[in-house]
Amino acid sequence: MRLLLISEYDGVGGGESFLLNTARGLAFQGHDVTVLVPEPGDLSRRLSENNIDVVFLKIRLRNVYRFWSVLKEHCFDSVVFNGTYSLYRFGFVTRMLHNVSKNIWVCHGPWVVVNFLRRWLLKYLADKVLVPNSEVKDFLLDNDVSLSIEVINLPIIINDFAYKLRNGPRTITVAMLARFQRVKGHDVFVRAIHELGETDDFTFIVAGDDPFKTEEAQQFKDYVHKLANELRVTSKVNFIGEVKDVAGFLRKVDILVVPSRYESYGMVILEGMAAGCTIIAADTDGPRKLVNNGKYGLLFPVEDHKGLARLIDFSRSNTQELEQVRDRALKHVTDNFNSENYPWTSILAVPEITSR
User: Fold this and answer.
1) At what angle do helices 84-96 and 116-125 cross, to 10 degrees?
2) Which run of H or of E encompasses 32?
3) Hey, what's the torsion of the CAs at 96, 97, 99, 104, to 10 degrees?
4) Strand 278-282 to 255-258 pairing
């Protein structure tokens, strides 16, 4: 297959990680893959490092002709849009060439605005929708988005993480890795650290920053640092900012905390499993599915910092039990989420549509 994947951002967040892993998996299986990104950045660098063709083009209406030229030059079988912003601006170009390219829209969560006009646009522009869980599918169906919708596992590249057993006496490293947004729950983690009280058994790390540089994110970041100061835990937790080498970072982590108020999926959970981390996550849609009711990790109620603290403390004296959980999780993610072995041909197949 010849495929064009379109990213709306030049960094590497959860959605962009999906595109990166998808491109690498497709290329590994021998497909012809090109990724369109707005401008040079971490995403294009990592794509180039993996010998994936990259096209730079900002997603603007004035660039429609240049986009059409890219399509005409390559004759892609399908175009994968990683959001509605690009679909609404460039999707009609591929629709005009529908005998050549099919449009596949990836809907990452139930936050898409759906009204009469956008419902019509989605129906006209998209041939198929890929979603990370049944809740997102139900959301689209409840909003009368009548398209071919398929729930898929968002894959990772297992070999990147190459889990290695670490021996010797040391403190337990507990970390969260997320951009600063209230929905990610940094404040819940900080309150849990305070709840644990004085202990020398743990090293706490907060990794991540504000890649989108929004005022709302900066305000939340300031709030989290202020909260840590008020609760007198600034000496216990290390805020290390953005992490470029996610795999290398996770290999040094024992417990990965995902305290999000909502996650439609949670790519970092799979990455943590592949790196051999114990997963402790808030009980919301994506983590609940990935952790599978405690089989591959531990769950606590959303915003329950005391519950999170209890599970972190539990890990201190139940190492053998959690080792079994980690082993199950590593096998599970290796068997079911490796992009290089993923059935991409069937997933990206678009059913024939006789009318719209």
Assistant:
1) 50
2) strand 32-37
3) -90
4) parallel
Q: Which two tokens stand for residue 108?
A: 């990452």
CA atoms within 13 A on the CB side of 142: 9
- Cβ contact 279:297 at 8 Å: yes
Q: Hey, which residues does 40 pair with through a beta bridge?
A: none
Cα distance between the two ends of the chain? 25
Question: 169-178: per-residue pLDDT in tens?
Answer: 568 999 999 9
Residue position matching structure tokens 């679909």? 87
CA distance 270 to 100: 35
Q: Are 119 and 145 in contact (CB under 8 A)?
A: yes
Q: Of 206, 202, 193, which Cα lies nearest the Cα of 232?
A: 193
The per-residue pLDDT for range 77-90, each reduced to its tens digit, is 999 999 999 999 99
CA distance 36 to 56: 6
Residue 101 sits at φ, ψ, to 5 deg, of: -120, 145
255 CB neighbour count, 10 Å cutoff: 23
- Contact yes or no for 183/260 (Cβ under 8 A): yes
Closest CA to 79 of 120, 33, 39: 33
